[in-house]
Amino acid sequence: MPDNFKLDVDSDGIALVTWDMPGRSMNVIDVSAIQELAAIVEKIAIDAAIKGAVITSGKETFCAGADLTLLESLGRTFQELAKSQGEEAAATRLFEESRKLSQLYRRIETCGKPFAAAINGTALGGGFELCLACHQRIAADNDKTRLGLPEVKIGLFPGAGGTQRVSRMMQTADALQFLLKGDQLPLNRAKTMKLIDAVVPTADTIKTAKEWVKANPKAKAPWDTEGFRLPGGPVYSKAGMMTWPAANAIYRRETYDNYPAARSILQVVYEGLLLPIDRALTVESRHFAKILRSPEAAAMIRSLFVSMQDLNKGARRPAGVPATQLKKIGIIGAGFMGAGIASVSAQAGIDVVLIDRDQDSADKGKATVQKSLTDQVNKGRMQSAARDAVLARITPTADYGALKDVDLIVEAVFEDRKVKADATTKAQAVNAGVVFGSNTSTLPITSLAETAKDPARFIGIHFFSPVERMMLVEIIVGKKTGDAALATALDFVRAIRKTPIVVNDTRGFYANRCVLNYIQEGHLMLLEGIPAPMIENTARMAGMPVGPLSLNDETALDLGLRIVRAAEADLGPQAIDPRQKKLLEDMVEKNGRLGRKNGKGFYDYPQGGKKRLWPELGNLIPAKLSRDQVDALDVEELKQRFLVVMAVEAARTFEEHVVTDVREADVGSILGWGFAPYSGGTLSYIDMMGSKKFVELCQRFEKKYGPRFAPPQLLLDLAKTDDRFYRRFPPGKKAA
Asked: How far apart, in whole angstroms, are the C-alpha atoms of residue 434 and residue 485?
């Protein structure tokens, strides 16, 4: 058994349990850690010479949480046992295995010896649940420390006692918000919420924890003491009746019941607060085992943890190419996108030359960064000294000569071939050997590379807006792009702490091909006479973060019109839907409605007020449905139309080798445009439904709504045997 923990007992009989997993940068909870900690806890419990214990970490952080590959393997084990021994036996085994950590933490809490957690850094998930099971929580004063239970963000919920302890430590409404949002809290907020007991200087953390253990030999958890009262009052009380109906309504509004784990949080807290703690923990464990079996949890763990971790670690980086040391980069274009790229680069410690057509324009770009960072300072999310250090790394200029010694150039000028070609020519006249990345959302990289001196060192680096918040970067490989350019681009994305996907060149690449289908579907629904509020609401009910009309306002209607016209000019009239083109022409050219940027799009954006749908929108709609026709609309079908039209396009890109790895298709769809996260992504959505059923749905929609729903041959082939993408093309194996 590996030595994950070190046990030292001092002269006062206080045990120091130091968690320091060998070969890992952070402690995680896996089978060996659970077994070893359980043995140590038993030794502490039965050894009369040991008076109590302090648990701490030998690393910079306390614990990153559970090794989710362990949970993923539990799900696979359940499937195998269900086939060989039956579902009941498999469910029983899963329940017993998945509750071992909860039972261990309860043993710590009730073994009769005082335990204190000396939290010397970030503690998340099961690691923070370990802290909650200790009788006292002492944290080292560190601005970088974050504490939380973020499991809900990957389709799970805290299953080692977290829901029951948190809901007994604070007001019920606060506990539910903490559990359902999955926030990672700084120390001051955690202390205010009574999740930790004290914050002390780092050097005093263990000493303070030991002193507490020595002074409290008979410590018990509050809920194990006689006369304990719930901070939020009983469920069936005036306070409870003010909490639970509202909590249920908020849950429905925010999730549309798409997330089984979020629903389980409500249920286990509700039921648990009606029961003694031990029975409540059993209820939590039963629900946790059930959630582990859900397809949503399996898909979210796979995409949002396992696959994302693989991509962040360089799964697609060419082997044998030396790492690029990016000390200084050049960014051409100081507009909104260029300023955002400059900001995240400087925050990563990279010096930035920010170029625009004149000094004033370049200065405005840096001012945009300054305003954004100052907003963070004012919200308490950044120190003013850190902001000033970031700004000091950005040099605004109109002089292309400043690019002579940069390690990478990122062009982020206007989405126009001539403008981009001019920027490329000027930059390469100064520094021809550097890798050149174009931030383009639709223009094919191969054609843009024609103006480059060396197309092998030209690559697409597509950021999403706003750059500071969007975690995805789409790396586009042109026909002549070389491995060195790809490796440099991936090194850059990793340095700025974004997640990359690598796609092959095509019009719109991967993300925009799919998301433009989403926007178009909203347009066509509108033209069918479906009320705009219904379009927006059903899209959110399907799991999208915003409706298609709202999203189009954010991306700009005039840009959408330019994309439609460019596709028509390059590919012919059959490549577009004339109904959509006319709608955009009416909005942009006849009514001057460009979107949020000019305060007028599908929505109105009054200054100082909330946006609202444009009241005159109905005048542009040729078909009007009667109230009876609207009432007869199938909401489930509307939801499916949105998801299917994107997923079928994702399948087309996979068939065409635009996307070549299932992980990138799924992670890219969630991070890039918010495709229903509970599904695990576009291809996981197809797999979850089953390829045969999905193809049947596509064909029904194709007959009813048109060829945009036609399934590609790859899907037809999968449907013959009801095969799955992840079975036919396992992660790392490209489409044949």
From this structure: 9
Q: CA–CA separation, 299 vs 326, rounded Å?
A: 35
Is 308 within the bounds of a domain? Answer: no
Helical (H) or strand (E) element with 208: helix 205-215
576 and 436 fall within a common domain: no
In the numeric block, which tokens belong to residue 364?
């405005």
User: How high is the pLDDT of residue 508?
Assistant: 85
What is the pLDDT at residue 736?
54
Active site residue 411: no
The C-alpha angle 480, 482, 487, rounded to 5 degrees, equals: 145
Q: Where are the alpha helices (DSSP H) in 56-99?
A: 68-85, 87-98
> Rounded to a whole number, what is the distance in angstroms from the first to the last CA of the chain?
42
- Backbone phi and psi for residue 348, each to the nearest 5 degrees, phi listed first: -85, 5
Q: Which residues, in sequence order, are CB contacts of 476 under 8 Å at separation 6+?
A: 440, 445, 459, 460, 461, 462, 503, 504, 505, 509
Long-range contact set of residues 223-227: C-beta below 8 Å, sequence gap at least 24: 223/165, 223/168, 223/277, 224/109, 224/110, 224/277
pLDDT of res. 734: 58
Domain membership of residue 163 (yes or no) is yes
Phi and psi (nearest 5°) for 301? -60, -45
468, 522: one domain: no
- Looking at residue 1, its pLDDT comes to 46
* Catalytic residue chosen out of the listed positions 36, 109, 129, 474: 129
What single letter denotes the amino acid at residue 140?
Answer: A
Specify burial of residue 335 (Cβ count, 10 A radius: 0-12, 13-18, 19+): middle
**For the chain, the helix, strand and coil percentages under 3-state DSSP, each to the nearest 5:** 55, 10, 35
Q: Please identify which residue in the block is written with the tokens 């799900």.
A: 75
Q: Is residue 434 part of a domain?
A: yes
Q: Is 151 part of the annotated catalytic residue set?
A: yes
* Contact partners, residue 196, CB within 8 Å, separation at least 6: 119, 131, 137, 138, 139, 147, 187, 190
Give the pLDDT score at 440.
86
- The whole-number mean pLDDT for each consecutive block of 10 residues of the chain, a chain of 736 residues, reads 86 96 92 94 96 96 86 76 84 89 97 97 96 98 94 94 97 96 94 96 96 96 95 92 93 93 97 97 96 92 92 91 93 94 96 96 96 92 92 96 95 88 91 92 88 93 92 95 96 96 92 95 96 96 96 92 88 91 95 93 93 93 89 96 98 96 96 96 98 98 96 97 95 65
- Which of 472, 506, 540 is the last residue before a domain boundary? 506
CATH of the domain at 172: 3.90.226.10
Residue 227 counted as domain residue: yes
Query: What's this model's pTM, rounded to 2 decimal places?
Result: 0.91
Distance CA 683, CA 299 (A): 10
Q: What CATH number does residue 498 fall under?
A: 3.40.50.720
Per residue in 118-161, pLDDT (tens digit) is 999 999 999 999 999 999 999 999 989 999 999 999 999 999 99
Are residue 491 and residue 545 in the same domain, yes or no? no
Q: Which of 36, 109, 151, 474 is catalytic?
A: 151
Cβ-Cβ contacts under 8 Å for 515 (sequence gap 6 or more): 551, 646, 672, 673
Taking CA 657 as the corner, what is the angle to CA 312 and CA 338, rounded to the nearest 5 degrees? 50
Q: What angle do CA 39, 45, 48 make, to 5 degrees?
A: 125
Query: CA dist 245 to 57, 242, 248, 266, 466, Å?
Result: 41, 7, 5, 11, 36
Enclosing domain of residue 247: 5-293
Q: Burial level of 183, CB count in 10 A (0-12/13-18/19+)?
A: middle
CA pair distance 225, 125, nearest whole angstrom: 26
Domain's final residue, options 480, 506, 532: 506
